[in-house]
Amino acid sequence: MKKVILIAFAFVLLACGAVENENGASACDNGGEQGCTLEDSSTIKQELTDQKPFEKTNITTVFTMLENKESGIVYFGFSDCPWCQEALPILKQVLEEQKLNCYYVQTRDEERNSLLKEEEKADIMEKSMDFLQRDEENNPQLYVPFVIVIEEGKVIDGHVGTVEGYDTNERKMNKEEKQQLKNIYNAMFTRLVEGKEDRK
């Protein structure tokens, strides 16, 4: 009887762990309470500290980019987020193929405490509202992984999570899903690259 209760409890925890946006793409609740498990965080930390193509920064740098009408790519996430763990190698590959760099804003520390102040979170959400995921009450939320493209001080594109229908609690991404996410990132960054060429 105890085994049945434990198994049922485990399924409830797994079911509560998935967060889906209106398009069905899964992401990690940046509140640190849903869908976030420690699995491959050491690999993620290594990829993010290897520098190129990532440059770790803070939210203040992002606000400065927006104010100064700069352009660039920003990745929001944290190492314990399983959706981040799935998305990051694909993001890195696309960045390297397109010879681009990306700012990395860590949203949570090792104990899952938020590294963003409420006013900072509200401000970045306001500036990227069109690309945010919404919760069950249709309120915009800052879920991760969240990648935004900034062109001349405006957020022109963004993507939350991985791909529609994928749930990291069930399995790893398959080849088709990885290619789909790669295509999403390529399309996002091509606009920035083309804009850069036009400005020359």
UniProtKB/TrEMBL annotation:
This is Transporter accessory protein. Keywords: Signal. It comes from Amedibacillus dolichus. InterPro entries: Thioredoxin-like_sf. Residues 1-21 form the signal peptide. PROSITE patterns: PROKAR_LIPOPROTEIN.
